[in-house]
Write a structure and sequence with these properties.
Strands 3-2-1-4-5-6-7 form a seven-stranded parallel β-sheet, with helices on both faces. By secondary structure, the protein is α/β, with parallel strands linked by helices. 49% of the residues lie in helices and 12% in strands. It has a single domain (36-297), classed as Rossmann fold, CATH 3.40.50.720. Helix 6 links the parallel strand 5 (170-175) and strand 6 (216-223). The protein is globular and about 75 Å long. The longest helix is centred in the middle third of the chain and has 29 residues, at 139-167. Bound molecules: nicotinamide-adenine-dinucleotide (NAD). Residues 46-47, 49-53, 70-73, 76, 97-100, 125-128, 148, 175, 177, 223, 225-226, 228-231, 305 line the site of nicotinamide-adenine-dinucleotide.
């Protein structure tokens, strides 16, 4: 029987490419990846009225980007706009937009396209949390979690991805959560919406790869708790491995990941180990570990953000 040379050749190419990509990854764990220039890029940040969104806006302003700020809370968003201008940004546009409403997203998006131009970096950051055990979650709040934390991403992609594809240039950033990787007690609706956001971002990434749209980049961010208002009152049972993150630190890491075009950013690093252990350990052992790390009681002191609308 003659050997099938085509499949031997394909196998060698596959092995060679795999080895090269592994070496590349290894190299970039030793030396930092080159950072891209985002001066002049049109960066849209949802949920820019506070927390991470505001800090992200300030960082992009210092990098010379044009900023488009969306938030449901007009006063808070205007405040961010003012701070960003004071930080030296010359082109900043603030829009009031309820990202949970598809019609709002589409109409504000077309206003942005007319008044500012094609968005080239889209950061889906707006988020809400209910923070109750599942049977105590009111239906409307659970729906809101999905509308803001996940469905808004569908509408913003629909609005801005076509121009990115046409220009073969763009970056889609999904601010999900470590709760989008591992289920957490008292965060059922939040976790489900964040899992959905991760799955959606990863699937569109696969689509862009399959269609060879190599100018479109994706970054999926999955942080543990950050000391913003959103999760006021939460605690960690293991501050050494799972510290509550400082917002400045989290945002510096997010900016680094975007500029270096990293696909996944989990923080702190122990989240990578938790995801790995969860997939290989027997459930009983994983739960013993979760209990030891206090993961089942993270939400016990949860208060959440004060209502500002
Ligand atoms: N804080 C954390 O511990 C933590 C951890 C992991 C992931 N995250 C995620 O990071 C993102 C930012 O969180 P944060 O900590 O800065 O929260 P935050 O509450 O400080 O800010 C969220 C912003 O989103 C805005 N927003 C809420 N609903 C909106 C809507 N319908 N339309 C438009 N804007 C809306 C709010 O007005 C607010 O300005 C969220 O997606 C959150 O789920 C936060």
């Amino acid at each position: 029987m003659t050997p099938n040379w085509k499949s031997v050749e394909e196998m060698l190419i596959f092995l060679g490419k795999s080895l090269l990509s592994l070496l590349e990854s290894l190299l970039f764990t030793i030396i930092p990846r080159p950072r891209k220039n985002v001066a002049g890029e049109i960066v849209l940040i949802t949920g820019a009225g506070g927390g991470l969104g505001r800090l992200l806006a300030l960082k992009f302003a210092s990098l010379g980007s044009v900023l488009v700020l969306w938030d449901i809370n007009e006063d808070q968003n205007e405040e961010t706009c003012k701070l960003v201008q004071e930080a030296g940004a010359t082109r900043v546009y603030a829009y009031t937009c309820d990202c949970s409403r598809k019609e709002d997203v589409y109409s504000v998006a077309s206003q942005v396209k007319k008044e500012v131009g094609d968005v080239s970096i889209l950061i889906n950051n707006a988020g809400v949390v209910t923070g109750k055990s599942f049977l105590n979650c009111p239906d409307d709040l659970m729906e809101k979690s999905f509308d803001v934390n996940f469905k808004a991403h569908l509408w913003t992609y629909k609005a801005f991805l076509p121009a990115m594809i046409a220009n073969n240039h763009g970056h889609l950033v999904c601010i999900s959560s470590s709760a989008g990787l591992i289920g957490v007690n008292k965060l059922a609706d939040y976790c489900a919406s964040k899992f959905a956001a991760c799955g959606f971002a990863e699937s569109v990434l696969a689509e862009t790869v399959a269609q060879k749209q190599n100018g479109i980049k994706t970054t999926i961010v999955c942080p543990f708790f950050i000391k913003t208002e959103m999760f006021t009152g939460v605690s960690t049972g293991c501050p050494f491995l799972l510290p509550l993150l400082e917002p400045e630190y989290a945002v510096t890491k997010i900016i680094d990941a975007i500029l270096q075009e990293k696909v996944y950013l989990y923080m702190p690093k122990f989240i990578y180990i938790m995801v790995f252990l969860r997939s290989i350990l027997p459930l009983k052992t994983a739960l013993i570990l979760a209990e030891y790390l206090g993961v089942l009681n993270l939400m016990d002191g949860f208060i959440g953000a004060k209502k500002k609308e």
